[in-house]
Each structure stands twice: as structure tokens, then as C-alpha cells.
Amino acid sequence: MNSEIPPLTGVSFAGSSGEKIPLMNRRRQVLDYFTRMFGNSSSGSDETSKDGYVEFGNIGEAASGRTLGPFAGVFAPVCLSMFSAMLFLRVGFVVGNAGLIETLFQFAIAYTIIVFTVMSVCAISTNGAVEGGGAYFMISRTLGPELGGSIGTLFFLANIVSSALCLTGCVEGLIDNFGESGYLVPRDSYILKDSHWWRFTYTSSLNFLNLIICLIGATLFAKTTVIIFAIVVICLVSSIISFFLKSPFQIEVPAANIFVNQTNTTAMLNYTGFSLTTFTENLGPSFGRDYTSNNIAVTFSSVFGVLFCGVTGILAGANMSGDLKNPSYSIPRGTLGGVLFTFISYITLSILAAATCSRDLLQENYVFLMPINIWPPFISIGILTATFSASLSCLIGSSRVLEALAKDRIYGRLLQFVNYGVWRSNPVAAVLFSWFLVQLILFIGSLNLIAQLNSILFLLAYVALNLTCLGLDLTSAPNFRPSFKYFSAWTCSLGLMGSVIMMFVINPFYASTSFGLCLLLILLLHFFSPCEATEWGSISQALIFHQVRKYLLLLDPRKNHIKFWRPQMLLMVANPRSSCPTITFINDLKKSGLFVLGHVKVDKAETNLDYTDKAISSWLTLVDHVKVKAFIELTVANSVRDGLHHLIRLSGMGAMKPNTVVMGFYDDKVPLDYFTRLDSVYKTSAFQGITTNEEKFPLRLPNEEKHLSASEFVSMICDIFQMHKNICICRHFDLYNKTDIVKNIKYKYIDVWPVNFFGPSMNDAYDTSSLFMLQLSCIIKMIAVYKKHTLRVHLLNTIDIQSQRMQLKQLLSTLRIKATIHEVTEWSQIDLKTLDSDRNIYISRVNKLIKNQCAETAICFVYLPMPKEIRGSDLQNVSYLNSLTDLTNNLPPTVLVHGVSAVTSTTL
After folding, report:
1. Residue closest to 82 by CA, chosen among 340, 352, 327
2. 652 and 791, same structural domain?
3. Cβ atoms 315, 154 nearer than 8 A
4. What residues pair up with 895 in beta bridges, in sequence order?
5. CA-CA distance, 110 to 498, in Å (whole number)?
6. Which UniProt keywords apply (predicted)?
7. pLDDT one-digit tens code per residue, 818-858
8. Is the pLDDT of residue 30 over 70?
9. I need a labelling partner for 225 at 20 to 30 A (CA). Which of 353, 694, 727, 764 fits?
10. 296: enclosing H helix or E strand
11. 686 by DSSP, 3-state: which?
């Protein structure tokens, strides 16, 4: 709601349609309020009831411009669109080639697909408010921007092709009336010349007339739809009556049929009137040639393609959704009524034509209805009004779909000119662009060829509509409660399969091309579209939820096996501004496993119950920015340690729970801000606020006290161990630069140190922690960035070094880990007795030893020993942390690793 609209004081209303609002003494304020909400009312009147109430629903309808009901807004447009060029121009073509039985069969197939699709349309349109954009709106708001945008684009093209089809039919009717040997001009005279380019000139002129009307009088045309429909119905009734009143006679071959006229200039076609013989002869198929398409052979597919283009207007009512008073009421009734009326009309004309017209008449004269009519101009008027109005309607509809695509920013700046080119609510730029595309389609010239392309594109739209409704039904979304109940998953499936099958029956090449184009658009929109239509709601999310829930229940933690183990990481993030390199590294380390970013806000939980809702959006934006595949878990606790307990217990779901907890190292380094550093690949302004208080993820100041003490940090390590989770502690990842690792040739190794330096043993290389280290190093070696690096396992020089080497080599071979074994001869210079007598000197020497081996190391994995006392004193904890600090000082990016369970398998 507009923030500038003043609040209504002293006025009460609930907001339901038709509800009365007591005006009190604020009648003018109420009217001004709704006028500003819904726009200026066209009437400008202040209608009130006798008792001083104003009708809420009426004000909304008048002000929003929604004035059309089921008949004028849906039934009439649907009938006119479905009749278009088929009713008066191609019924004879269909019956004459396919025969009556096959014609009825084809109509049955077409209307079965249509009825099932209409059920889907009705279900969607009665499930919520349908706004402007019609079918595109319904598809996109359910299937999401990628699939909805691609189908919307092809639906836009379908309207373009349909407009060209109707213009071609209109010109065909004009030529047969006013061309050489035309029915409305004297014999051997004509008004219109006839050739391919003359017809192109005529269609282009009519297309230009459509453009002028769209630019200056589209609204007026919408108001005359009922009048045009009445004219077409009168012409249709005259045709039906003529079959009963007209006596048998012979009809000339039309001048447009040059193929017959060139070989037999005296050929005459027979209208027999009602005849059992004629009816019997017209029952079976007898495919001939199409004289309007260079005399090409007619087939079942080409006949169905032409027939189906006469039933593709079912979305005309849905396209008027922005002008309908009550779309959810009008669309089902008007569309189903229009489908029934057109079906009866087509079947009636087909049966009457088969019973009265010879096969030659039906095949060689597509405008046979004109000479047998009691007054031929009726058919002329019917052809011109039906085809021209349908072409104009399709041009208007296509421009509105293009406008909707532009407003949704589906193609970003590519369609920005459409939004700029709007004058008095008329999308002038969209109209001009649509007109230009229609002009290009007119080069095809043949109505029957255009009809096949038209049918394919509309069938694709029907596929999308049925898929939309099927998806909504299968996901069992609680909010999918359409008031139209005459549909099911079966009707959607049958409509979907029928549409796909008939697409390939009509023209396999067009069908394959349309699906390929749709897939290409989906991929392009997925990767490049700037549209952020999260408020639309995508059915893909509902389908994913439905399937994920089902498979999570099937994922039984009791059936876990070590050979299918994978790391499932919970990374504790104090502040993402300073943690971007670590987040990126752990994302590589997860090996398609679960990755959770955990954060603890230290505060009173009872005063921050809504913290997650407030902060989650920023964290999800962070995930998108850093380009990692991670979930977010946030909690509020009195301490970081308590928050860690929350996250370990609650992160994940079912069998998908973290088995490894990763933390940063506890030291006194000043945290770096990777969002503002000029040399950072993570540089962004997305998390900056206008003021300091509005900035996302503010960093701790250098002199600001930490929320975590050294002793508490060590206690957290012990807690993780006691909760039976693997532990990784990352240090020096401020030095980690993935791009530099790729480009800098000095980085050659990934190092593994499988030895507990706080208590070395001959069996260290084979215990759980070392095997876990080897597993992690092997995983990181699989990443493309590190494939050129050598995995190096360091072996300390001991008394039995050869035996140790053979055992370690055998272990690596058994685990299928490709690595080199590097003997560290300097280890013999370190006196282990100093470990107890002078621990600091010992740790310092070990650190120097590791550092000497790491000059060309990209990542270093080091054994993490546990404190001797799991619940030690603060002094013991600090001493342990100091030892870890001294051990890892001045090393490259280092991961301290401790494993608590087996993670490697040698079984098949």
C-alpha cells in the first residue's frame, strides 16, 4: 500500500467484496482513499446507498478498470479466437481430405486436449487473484521465472503467429470475394490482383491497420467484441440455414486454385444438397493436395495442424484477466461455454458439409460456403470480421504478454525499451515490436503452413499449463484450493501427454525445435536473468520439498556404512567478513556432503526470539555472494559455548547431521574485512549500510573485548570431542588465496603430518585422526585447483624407518590414495625428553621443523591432539592453547585435525 495514503480515522471496514463501510462524517475521505488506492474512477460519481453506506467491491471494480463479465470478457473473445480463420475457410479442407469419420475423430482428440487444458486453466484461475498477463501470469507465478519466462516467450510468439495466420485468412477471403472470378464482383472482372506478393501487400496493409488501431483505439475494440461476435454468429446461422434452403447446382473452381484451372478450364464442382450418396462418399479419408501451398500433398498431420489452429483460442478469456470484474468466476464459465459452443458449431458444419458437398468441391474450393449461402455477403462479412478481429486480438494479446515480460524484468535490460515506450497505459513499444514480428511471419504466405507452426506453439503453452496444474496437485500444497473442482492429476496428465503427442504428430521438426528453444531459454534465464521474483513462488520449490521430505525419511541413520561416509561440516563463523577464505575452503572440503554455516549471537535468548528471522536474509545473501552450497543455522545463547551445543544438536535433519565441526583458531590477529579490501575477490557493497548501525556483520574493533575466552575455546574443543564429532581447526587462512594457488607455481604440495607431536608414537599414522587427515587431504586433492599439487605424507625418521615406510606405503595403497612419502630426517635432531622437561623448547623445534618443509606447501594438515584433561582448569586450557599456537606459528594455511570415528574403508 502506498505509504503516502493517509490513515483512515473513524472509518471501519473488513475489506471483503460487497461489504458496506459506514461513512460517518468522512464520506469524502473514504472516496479519496479508495481513489488513491485503486486509481481514478472513470465515472467520477460518488455512488452511495440510501442508508449512507458505500459498496466496497464496486469502488474497487470501477477504479481498477475491471468491468467485463463472463460473456463479454471471456465467452465472446474465446469464440472469436477459436473461430478465426477455421470456421469459414477451412472446414471444407478438413472434411474433404480427412473424411467425416476422421474429422470427427480429430475434433474429438483436439477437444479432449482442449477440455483437459481448460480444466487446468480453470483450476489455476480459481485458486487466487489472476492479474494482467493471463496465461503468462498463471504459468510464471507457479513455475517460476525460468520456466515461466521461457514458456511466456513462446506464448508471445504463438500470439504473433496466430495474428499472421488470421491476417492471411482474411486476405484469402478478400481475394475470393474481390479477386479474379470473385464471388462479389462481376464475371471476368476484379478489384484485387492476386499473386504471392500482392497477397503479402494486402496482409501487410491489414497488419498496418491493426497497428493503428492498437495505438489509438484498442480499448474501443475491446468494447465492440460482443458486436463482432454477434455478426459472426449471424453469418454462421445463415450458413447452416443455407444448407437446407439451397438446391443442387454447380460451382466454379476459384481463380486461386491455379493448379486445377491450368489443366481443366471448364471444371465445375458439385453441390448436391442432402444426399445419402454424397454423405457415404465423404465418410472415409481421401487426401488430396493443398492448392494454397504450392499443391503439396495433404496428410493426416497437416489436416490436424490446420484443424487444431481453430481450437487454440481457449486462452483469449484468460488473457483478458486484467479487465475482468471477477476472473475466478468468469474464466471457467466463459471458457467452458465457448468451448462447448464452438464444438457444436464445428461438428454441425462438418456433418452438413459432408452430407451436401462433393469431395471435389470440398478439396478444390475452400470458400465453398460463400456460393451456397442464401446471401453470399454473409460469408464475406463473417470471414472478414472473424479473421480481422482475431488477428487484432492476437496482436493486442502479444503486446500485453511482452509488456508483462518486460515489467517482470525477465530479460533484464533487453526489454527495457518496452517499459519506456508506454503512453497513457498503452504499451506503444510492445505493440510496435509485436507488429514487426507479425510482419516477418507474413512472408510465409500460406495459411496452412502458418497453421502448423501456430498449433505447435499453442500446444506447448498447453503443455506448460497442464504441467503447472499437475505440479500444484502433486505437491499437495495446502494453499492450492481452487474453487473449480472438476480436475485431477489424471486430467492434467492426459492433457499434458495429449499435447506433447499431437505436437509431434503435427510436425516433428517444429515440435523438436520448440522444445529445444524452450530448453535453451530456460538455461539462459537460469544463468543470466536478473529477475529476482522470489515473491512469485516457484513450484520447483514445492516439488523439491515434497521429494526431499520423502527421501529424508528413507535415509535411515541405522543403515549408514563406512564405505559411503562423506564429510558433513558445521563451520562455526564468528563474522563472515573475516571468514570468507575459510568458508570457500570448507565448501571444497565437504565433497558433496552437508555444509552448515553456524553462528552464535551472544545475548539474552528471551529478548532475541526473532533474531533468526531478522538475520537469515543477510546470511543467505552471503552464501550467494561467496558462491558456496551451504545451509544457515543461527542461534542466540548466553555464551558461544552454549550456542555451539545448540548448533551441534539441532543442525541438519534425520540422517543428514554434521559429523565434523570446524572452527577458526583463537589468536590475537586483527580480523580482516574481505568485503572492503581492494585486493579481495570477495569485495562487495551488498552488506554496507547507509549508517554504521545499518551495516551487516560489523567487525569487532581491535580494542573491543571478545565474546570468547581462551579457556572457553579449549573447552569447546573438548565438548565437540565428547559429543563424538570430528574436529577441524583452521589457522592462517587469511593467507589462503585460491586464485593465487592456481597462478603461483611455487605452490606444489598438500602436506599431511600424521603424528601426534604432543606424544609421538609409532602407531600415530594408523590411528583414527591420521586416517581422517588422509581422507580430507585426498578429498581436497580431487578439487580441480589442487589436482596439479602433490599429496605429500611426512614420515618421521625413526629407528625402524624402512619398516615404517613399507607399512605406510601399504596403507596408502590399500586406501587407494595417491601420495608420496617424505622422510623427515631432521626429526632425529629433536630430543623427545624435552617434551616433558621443557615443553616450550620442544614445541618450538617441532614448529621450525614443519616450517622448513612447508616452503612450497599450499595446505597443511596437522594432527590435533586432545588436552590431557578433558575438563581441565583454566590454566591447563590456556597452556594447551599456547602449545597449539606455538606449534602452528608462521605456517601456511593449516588445518588441525582430530578424528573420533572411522572414515575410510578397504572393502568393495
Report:
1. 340
2. no
3. no
4. 730, 861
5. 9
6. Membrane, Transmembrane, Transmembrane helix, Transport
7. 999 999 888 888 877 787 778 889 999 999 999 999 989 99
8. no
9. 353
10. strand 296-297
11. coil
Instruction: Select from 499, 418, 464, 462 the least CA-distant residue to 148.
Output: 464
The total number of structural domains that make up the chain: 3
Q: Which three cell numbers stand for residue 509?
A: 521438426
Q: In what order do the strands lie in the sheet with 820-824?
A: 631-637, 595-602, 569-572, 660-664, 726-731, 894-898, 857-863, 749-753, 790-796, 820-824
What is each CA distance from 736 to 661, 742, 782, in whole angstroms?
Answer: 20, 12, 18
Rounded Cα distance, 6 and 607, in Å:
33
According to DSSP, residue 430 is labeled H
Q: 3-state SS of 247-293?
A: CCEEEECCCCCHHHHHHCCCCEEEECCCCHHHHHHCCCCCCCEECCC
Lowest mean pLDDT among 129-133, 186-190, 694-698, 706-710: 129-133
Are 179 and 190 in contact by the 8 Å Cβ rule? The answer is: yes
Residue 812 is inside which H or E element, if any?
helix 801-814
In a domain, 682, yes or no: yes
Cell numbers that stand for 747 in this block: 605452490
The percentage of the chain sitting over the pLDDT mark of 70, rounded to a whole number, equals 88
Q: Which domain holds residue 756?
A: 728-907
List strand residue ranges (DSSP E) for 551-629, in order: 569-572, 595-602
- pLDDT tens for 875-902 read 999 999 999 999 999 999 999 999 998 8
- Grid cell at residue 673: 574485512
- Which run of H or E residues covers position 820? strand 820-824
pLDDT in tens, 353-397: 999 999 999 999 998 998 999 998 999 999 999 999 889 888 988
Does residue 897 lie within any of the structural domains?
yes
CA distance 465 to 538: 14
Residue 461: what residue type? A
Q: In which region does residue 368 sit, left (phi positive, over 0), alpha (psi from -120 to 50) or beta (all else)? A: alpha
Strand pairing report for 726-731 and 894-898: antiparallel
Residue from 531, 535, 534, 510 nearest 522 by CA: 531
CA dist., res. 450 & res. 472, Å (int): 34
Single out the residue of 164, 657, 742, 171 nearest to residue 454, CA to CA: 164
What CATH number did the domain enclosing 112 receive?
1.20.1740.10
Angle, vertex CA 346, rays to CA 341 and CA 351, nearest 5: 130
Q: Is residue 553 part of a domain?
A: no
Q: Is the pLDDT of residue 590 over 70?
A: yes
Longest dimension (CA), the chain: 125
- What's the CATH number where 658 sits? 3.40.50
* Residue 537 within any structural domain of the chain: no
Same structural domain, 414 and 515: yes
Contact 291, 447 (CB under 8 A): no
Rounded Cα distance between 556 and 569, Å, is 19
Please write the tens of the pLDDT for every residue from 257-271.
888 877 766 678 999
pLDDT digits 0-9 by tens, 95-129: 999 999 999 999 999 999 999 999 998 888 787 66
Beta-bridged to residue 796, according to DSSP, are 824
In the block, residue with C-alpha cell 484468460: 318
C-alpha cell at 269: 464442382
d(CA 540, CA 147): 10
CA angle 251, 254, 97 (to 5 degrees): 80
Q: Do residues 491 and 569 both lie within one domain?
A: no
Residues in the chain, total: 908
d(Cα 433, Cα 665) in Å, to the nearest integer? 60
* Same structural domain, 825 and 897: yes
